[in-house]
């Protein structure tokens, strides 16, 4: 691949905010601030998404004025049924969501979600017409043992269904030990694992694998976003804490 092709063919970056279990209705002001910034032309060539708690999805869709995507943080694999407390991908789509995070490490840990479960959730997202933002990443001890590619490779093989394309899948590499800790891998380490993920996607999906966006997540802040986003095969970020305030989120977006 020559340089010109690589540059023109690079996926458009995506900065996605994961609000986790944060946000009451007053937080919709942050979405309105993001909307106004996009409308005023203050955000460059980058796609924006916010995944608020499910209680705010419908209102967030109304508040965002169609200039950013709103997503869910999880979905059930089934379209409906006797699953108290769960939300289906169809329900998210009905509320106006365009994407859904699946396989976040907090779900894999707190709710014991396995790779086959994450795979079923990804298929559910596709069935409902949503983009799946599928999270992978190793634990601290797995990194210390030098097993990160083995772990991430196993998560990709076990949880990404056949049929992935740039239009239905985004992969988010989130090392568990970097989430909410202020720690980040070195740029060299991020480059290595993103190249590994790119290779796995291309091996499995051919040309489509080149265009599937690979986000980095874990303690992305305005102060470190520029160097993290400049790493090869980093096509944007999945941001937790720094997505709660529009000013921080916009400062991250400005780094692309
Ligand atoms: O888990 C994350 C996003 O999904 C990252 O969270 P922090 O940005 O708060 O580390």
UniProtKB/TrEMBL annotation:
Catalytic activity: D-glyceraldehyde 3-phosphate = dihydroxyacetone phosphate; L-erythrulose 1-phosphate = D-erythrulose 4-phosphate
Pathway: Carbohydrate metabolism; erythritol degradation; Carbohydrate biosynthesis; gluconeogenesis; Carbohydrate degradation; glycolysis; D-glyceraldehyde 3-phosphate from glycerone phosphate: step 1/1
Short name of any one Pfam family annotated for the protein: TIM
Active-site feature positions: 104, 174
EC class: isomerase
Subunit structure: Homodimer.
Protein name (record): Triosephosphate isomerase
Protein encoded by which gene: tpiA
């Amino acid at each position: 691949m020559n340089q010109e092709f690589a540059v023109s063919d690079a996926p458009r970056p995506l900065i996605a905010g994961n609000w986790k279990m944060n946000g009451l209705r007053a937080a919709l002001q942050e979405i309105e601030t993001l909307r106004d910034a996009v409308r005023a032309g203050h955000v460059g060539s980058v796609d924006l998404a916010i995944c608020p708690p499910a209680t705010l999805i419908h209102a967030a869709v109304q508040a965002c004025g169609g200039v950013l995507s709103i997503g869910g943080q999880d979905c059930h694999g089934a379209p409906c049924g006797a699953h108290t407390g769960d939300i289906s991908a169809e329900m998210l789509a009905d509320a106006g969501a365009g994407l859904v995070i699946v396989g976040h490490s907090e779900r894999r840990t707190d709710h014991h979600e396995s790779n086959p479960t994450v795979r079923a959730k990804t298929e559910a997202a596709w069935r409902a017409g949503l983009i799946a933002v599928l999270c992978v990443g190793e634990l601290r001890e797995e990194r210390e043992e030098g097993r990160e590619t083995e772990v991430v490779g196993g998560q990709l093989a076990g949880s990404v269904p056949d049929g992935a394309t740039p239009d239905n899948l985004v992969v988010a590499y989130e090392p568990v030990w970097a989430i909410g800790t202020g720690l980040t891998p070195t740029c060299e380490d991020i480059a290595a694992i993103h190249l590994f993920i790119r290779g796995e996607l291309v091996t499995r999906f051919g040309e489509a694998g080149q265009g599937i966006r690979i986000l980095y997540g874990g303690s992305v802040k305005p102060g470190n976003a520029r160097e993290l986003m400049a790493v090869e095969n980093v096509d944007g970020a999945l941001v937790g804490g720094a997505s709660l305030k529009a000013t921080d989120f916009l400062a991250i977006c400005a780094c692309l």
